[in-house]
Design goal:
heterodimer; A: alpha+beta; 60s Ribosomal Protein L30, Chain: A; 4 strands; B: mainly beta; six-stranded mixed β-sheet; 31 strands
């Protein structure tokens, strides 16, 4: 059991460090775009309903999104430079110090590489997802995550990226990259993910 | 007095019609008791009926309720010398010898699916009755009735309003489905954690649930469309209304005490600021205009002020601003992190997350003296929520790497933890 947990944490960290987006997040986007209407209708329940109807919806939603995810896998492709570890574009996660939204010196060159790519590819859009560690209150962390994403945005903008290419979203501490308690996990969670949108 | 109580029991039968069968997904453990609590004994109620035992153990619910308040200490059943079920069978000397101040005896009598309950509360030293009731309820109303008996006992002995019949809302995350993806749920439950019901679920985060003052609606934040939006959901039919989905943050919603307005955080103009939305005419008033983070607004009970978190001084601290607009004044100076303030129902104190060097605890500030009383041991405590009478604070903390709900009495003496079967539980909010 312990080993499993450790393995999971390691996998989670690797995913973050290499900057890949997880399949989980693709699922979620499909669920929310394709099944939005259905979800709107089914997501909530009054007190007269019991929990079972909610569970049924969840199962339906999951199998549906998994089917779609398989069909989608071939479509999410960016240039080879994004998977070349020697290229700064392969790094899509910017890390921060605790309770700080200031971009650290080490990450400026990575952001600059993305800025250069985006300035040269005006049709390409990115989402800057701001995240925090779990310390402190949740809504404050939503605000902190947004400030982090906006710090990255202002560097992109200063290097010629337009506002139409960038969307800022903050999830605060709600979507940790690593679920563990302690500094090793927290430093992986204090981040901005630069997520390229499939065209 | 009597007419008030009778009216109360009328309410019981109306409200209780809607509650499904109680299920025990969680258990409550008192982790630290208090010596100063008033000793009382709730004797197991007698039972007669078509089943071998009462479907609901009323006396244990009443004992647990009163103990949870931190003001009473219920005698354990195994320490009782006798178990009388009516006042005329009570030998007061027995209970005096056990050091009990009060005694509650009663019985349940089931006839054709109707449960006749009678109970009495007795003063052990005077040897006289203080309270006595007889009422008839349906099977699915028994648990609620037990909470109402706790309310009556508490109000009689303390002269204060009780909140055993109130409810809590909270967020859970579990790993669900084939992919073991994180599933977010918004649940409501009775104040003792029983009878949990999911009112919304999503693969994207659900956050910041808060009750309308009448207890009929919940406002919350949902990321179901991959960005934040605020919804108000009616509990009676599950219908909901989207209240805010501006560009940027839509967060930290909080109903005004009269229910006509909502304080919230929006970052549509740049940095996160506090706004007040009039729910009738949809007018939006921008209260704060700093370049820093302003968030987590919460109303004073008279509706005149709003406490909120701001990092305009460098670190998060609490500030107060008039709800009609005006100048903010800083409230907290002690500690390097004070956030998520909430007023008590009497307006005399504010509960908050208080941290020094990364040790996050729950603290209450007395607004008359500005002294801070730290209630919990940390170090990952967050999301404090006062009970209706401000006797208790519910909050979330970490236990073995999991988020759990805990409660502490406002004087910091009584601690308890709510243990769920699985998953993370957080952001509790108490109905008022």
């Amino acid at each position: 059991m312990k080993i499993n947990k450790l393995a999971l944490t390691l996998i989670a960290s690797t995913v973050v460090l290499t900057g890949c987006t997880s399949t989980d997040e693709k699922d979620a986007s499909l669920l929310d775009t394709d099944l939005k209407a259905e979800q709107e209708a089914l997501i909530t329940s009054g007190l007269n309903n019991n929990a079972v109807s909610g569970e049924q919806f969840i199962t339906q939603g999951l199998s549906q999104s998994e089917l779609n995810a398989n069909a989608m896998n071939g479509l999410t492709s960016l240039g080879a430079e994004f998977s070349d570890p020697a290229n700064p574009l392969s790094k899509q996660t910017i890390y921060f110090k605790h309770d700080s939204s200031q971009v650290q010196q080490d990450f400026i060159s990575i952001i600059a590489a993305h800025a250069q790519y985006l300035a040269a590819n005006r049709g390409q859009r990115v989402i800057l997802e701001g995240h925090t560690d779990e310390l402190g209150s949740r809504e404050y962390n939503i605000a902190l995550g947004e400030q982090r994403a906006k710090s990255v945005f202002s560097i992109l903008r200063s290097q010629g990226v337009t506002g139409q290419q960038v969307e800022v979203v903050s999830y605060g501490e709600e979507k940790p990259a690593s679920e563990g308690v302690g500094e090793a996990s927290w430093q992986l969670n204090r981040r901005v993910e630069i997520t390229y949108q499939v065209q | 007095m009597i007419s008030i109580l009778l009216r109360r029991f009328f309410l019981i039968s109306l409200v209780a019609l809607f509650s499904p069968v109680a299920q025990s997904e969680l258990s409550i453990e008192i982790t630290k008791g208090t010596e100063a609590a008033v000793p009382l004994a709730v004797v197991p109620f007698g039972y007669s009926g078509s089943t071998t035992r009462s479907p609901v153990n009323l006396s244990s619910i009443i004992s647990a309720d009163l103990t949870r308040s931190g003001l009473f200490k219920a005698l354990r059943e195994r320490d009782m010398l006798a178990k009388p079920t009516t006042a005329n069978k009570v030998n007061f000397r027995n209970w005096q010898a056990l050091g009990q101040d009060y005694l509650i005896v009663g019985s349940v009598n089931e006839v054709m699916g109707q449960y006749q309950i009678q109970f009495q509360m007795l003063d052990v030293f005077k040897g006289e009755g203080l309270l006595g009731y007889r009422l008839t309820v349906k099977k699915n109303e028994l648990r609620k009735t037990a909470h109402h008996i706790s309310d009556l006992v508490y109000e009689k002995l303390t002269g204060k309003k009780s909140d055993f019949s109130s409810r809590i809302a909270y967020i859970t995350t579990t790993k669900a489905g084939v992919n073991k993806r994180k599933l977010y749920k918004l649940l409501i439950a009775d104040a003792d954690g029983f009878n949990p019901r999911a009112i919304a679920s999503s693969w994207e985060p659900l956050m910041s649930p808060s009750w309308s003052p009448d207890g009929n609606k919940i406002v919350y934040v949902s990321f179901e469309n991959k960005r934040s939006a605020i919804y108000i959901q009616k509990l009676s039919d599950g219908k909901r209304t989207k209240i805010a989905s501006y560009k940027g943050i839509n967060g930290a919603p909080s109903f005004s005490p009269d229910g006509s307005k909502l304080a919230l955080t929006l970052s549509k103009d740049g940095s996160p600021d506090i706004f007040v939305l009039n729910l009738k005419n949809k007018q939006l008033l921008k209260l704060t205009k700093s370049y820093a983070i302003d968030t987590e607004p919460s109303w004073s009970p008279d509706g005149r002020s709003i406490v909120y978190t701001s990092n305009r001084g460098g670190k998060p601290q609490l500030y107060i601003i008039p709800s009609q607009g005006g100048r903010s004044s800083r409230l907290t100076f002690d500690g390097d992190y004070n956030a998520r303030g909430q007023f008590s129902s009497d307006g005399k104190s504010i509960v908050m997350v208080h941290a020094n060097r990364g040790d996050y605890r729950i603290a209450i500030m007395d607004l008359a003296t500005h002294t801070l009383n730290v209630l919990t041991a940390g170090r990952y405590d967050e999301s404090p929520s006062f009970s209706a009478n401000a006797d208790m604070v519910l909050y979330s903390s970490k236990k073995a790497g999991r988020s759990v709900l805990s409660a502490v009495s406002a004087d910091g003496r009584m601690h308890q933890s709510f243990t769920f079967d699985s998953g993370n539980v957080r952001e509790p909010s108490w109905s008022h």
